Fold these 2 entries.
Entry 1:
Amino acid sequence: MNLAVTRALLNGQAVGLRSEDGLIAELGPSVEPSAGDEVIDAEGLLLSPPMVNGHTHAAMTLFRGFGDEMPLMEWLRTKIWLAEAKLHPDDVYWGTRLACLEMIRSGTSRFFDMYWHGGEAARAVIDSGLRAAISTVMIDQLDPARGESMREGVLESLDRIADAGPRVAPSLGPHAIYTVSSESLAWLAEVAAEREISLQIHLSETEEEVRDCIEAHGKRPAAYLDELGFLGPRTVLAHGVWLDEGELELIAAREATVVARPAANMKLAVGGVLPYPAAARAGVRLGLGTDGVSSNSNLDSFEEVKLFALSQKHASRDSSTLPADEALAIARGLRSPALGGTLLQVGEAADFLLLRASDPELSAGDLDADLVYAAAGSVVDTTVVAGRVLMRDRVAPGADELVAEVRARAARLTA
Ligand SMILES: [Zn+2]
């Protein structure tokens, strides 16, 4: 069915929007519904582009609050990796469904995911109505022989993700340079190039990772990845906290994307944030992500964009660093073609939000600044993806059942 939105506010003007076959067909002050359209009367609501979550581990809703306040490596080794050993594929389906619900409720239309059982995550994305790049994870614990024995399984998983449906893009997600061998990283880069799909990896999260890389390979992490053929326009690098200027220039030259995730950096106390001023000077393509909820602990991109802007101002001791409109453009995935952000324009995907203009947080002041500094995801009234209404009047169908399902599974996994 086609969708018509009437009386929505855009740049201070009441407009109508019609979508046909998942694309914006008409947008403007004189647009009216056509016969047979599903109609949303948006009086008092602001039309807004959606958020793009550039890095997460969606199914980790199963591990929310599990092992909080621990050092990163101890947390992974003594909590997360042990609990993950008990994961069933259907746990990933339900955990991802809950994550999708959370993202729908906080205005995200698309996300980049790295987690086990990608086929199940892809099925959850299709059933939720969102869009996602779902990666097949690889961790060979720096053992090339083990990596080689995993290759067939990686390709099978990739095919399953690719077959999931139209809103899911297959992707490859080696965990990090300290958990995946050079041989496997180079192989994954080849597969991604052959299939023209994205590569996702954690990079330069801690100073220890940088020190170890220099010790093992004689170069810094970005240069190491580049040598393996890993950096290109479809590469999405999460973290980037300790990238130096030379690495930023290299990443910019390769047109790779760096995704900041400030909440998780601060919660895990890594001691820094993405060097945004230097990255912007170098022309690096940027995005914003929440990371998984066990290191955030939510998937609210409105909260994340506030932390992004504030942490950058704080770190640079300059309140003019990363102004609200730029922070918002990054959070909407508009500062990297790889992230697939959408604008409100005819011919673009019918992915958009209706925000509650009457909420106290949006009652006065510049809209972009309010969205970054004042709002949370709770200002989102309606979320539409591919012309389909996923939440209306803050009601997303099936929410209670999803919470109950994940609560029961989380209890089993973390027992
Ligand atoms: Zn992550």
Note: The pocket of zinc ion is lined by residues 55, 57, 202, 238, 291-292 (CB under 6 Å).
Entry 2:
Amino acid sequence: MSNKLNNRQTSRHEVLIIGGGAAGLSLALNLPTDMKVAVITKDRDSEGSTYYAQGGISAVLRADDSFDSHIQDTLNAGGGLCDEKAVQFTVENGPEAINWLADLGVPFSTDKHKNGKKSWHLTREGGHSHRRVIHAADATGKALQTTLLNHVKHSSNIELLDHHIAIDLITGEKLGLDHNRCLGAYALNKSNMQVETLQAHYVVLASGGASKVYLYTSNPDGSTGDGIAMAWRAGCRVSNMEFMQFHPTCLYHPDAKSFLLSEALRGEGAHLLLPDGTRFMHKFDERGELAPRDIVARAIDHEMKRLGVDCLYLDISHKPAAFIHSHFPTIYAKCLEYGIDLTREPAPIVPAAHYTCGGIISDLHGRTDIVNLYAIGETAFTGLHGANRMASNSLLECIVFARATAKHIEQSLNTPLQWCLINDWDESQVTNSDEEVVVSHNWDELRRFMWDYVGIVRTDKRLQRARRRVDLLLLEIDEYYGNFHVSSDLLELRNLATVADLIIRCAMQRKESRGLHYTLDYLQQNEKAENTVISPETASINNTTNNQAP
Ligand SMILES: Cc1cc2nc3c(=O)[nH]c(=O)nc-3n(C[C@H](O)[C@H](O)[C@H](O)COP(=O)(O)OP(=O)(O)OC[C@H]3O[C@@H](n4cnc5c(N)ncnc54)[C@H](O)[C@@H]3O)c2cc1C
């Protein structure tokens, strides 16, 4: 199927979905089958956080559980900042979303009972007071992504364009029209390095989180916050970017950049150790290694900074080898690949950025501040997670909001829309870069200062240091962007710098410690819980030269 106009660089679809993870694919599959839909992914079509999710998806699926209980657990985790309506909406639509996935054929793990009947096997994770996490063994994300992709590939109304990286949104305002509807996006086709104009009546950002802004992350390379940065540049408000969730134990090895050492290891008795082999968690919390994730992450960060070391260690070698083999076959095998034998020695670990709780402000229909622009999944801020995400609620949010957004788009179809005339991407003023090193250097610098100054434990001074550095980087990147042809690395760097700026702005505004935002300068929690909302209209925008695009 081709929706290209005669002009090689422009195509038209009714709906353009930027991102093909759990959120984007679920949305595509829930739209009416007579709508022309494009889903673009910037790398290969399976790549994104969804593929790597291990644990599962939370939903109330057993008679002894209740919506009230799931709601209460989510509110407790969220540190007083969850939007109760968003929580209730997500939880109450959970079972239907799971049934939809099961009907598509996602191979959820089951238990077989004595009477021969099967039921879903549900696990329990941190923060959940009931067993309510449905999963496909320890590779739920892979099963989910593969099943959704398979259906999308068999849907004749959906065009899947991989290796297309969206650059910027096209809006009525940018074109000088009398409305500010979203009209599509420019995207770089990485296979021929041409910039294409993807026109659409409805545009949905489903482009995942921004954890790659930190030096260490559990996320794949593409989590560069592109959707958040594009929405911000287009004029959308963004909220709560200071709440970045860190996973305490990611394997520290140059080749294992995003491999998680599951919390289950600590659950089964693994010890956290300093480089000299001493345990330290009891200094921070009487629950030791079993303290909640954010406390463990903070303790590790504190000890690393105190000692000036690059990593600490996780040790389960005191358990019998047979136990380790049978309980942690995947983790054991993966560590062995990197020369670490968990039955004999501790594994080096660092905490790693894991989940972006904030994002583009969107409502229960996925609507953003711009007409016909929607945001769903990790890129969106719906209010569900508050100041701290509860495990396994994020995939649920992707599916529930994708389905709600599809419904809203379907209901809006009665309003006829005209195609506008949109200019092609203009590269007449730019040349090939003569100094690619600027991009790679700035990538490294940005991720390191974000780690050191805007990481797990913050202070005003650290944030100010980061502020100064990001201001400089933004200027430098913008100058570079304005003068040279775009490349995927440059686009991602530009977005990372914008997202870093947004995180720092939000963190500077929050004068308290709450949930995932912990600052030594304001250890107290304010009586009133308030979201941090920032708007491009009121933020000072750098004056930059930009020779690209209309
Ligand atoms: C290791 C790991 C384990 C996790 N475990 C769990 C778990 O057990 N349970 C749970 O609920 N959550 C878990 N999470 C979180 C959860 O996986 C994510 O929040 C969720 O998958 C996000 O889905 P998404 O569709 O929003 O984005 P993603 O799955 O990240 O997909 C993003 C998509 O957007 C595309 N994209 C991005 N930018 C652009 C651009 N500029 N142009 C074009 N396309 C673009 C990407 O190519 C990709 O297709 C885990 C995350 C990680 C990293």
Note: The two ends are 29 Å apart (CA to CA).
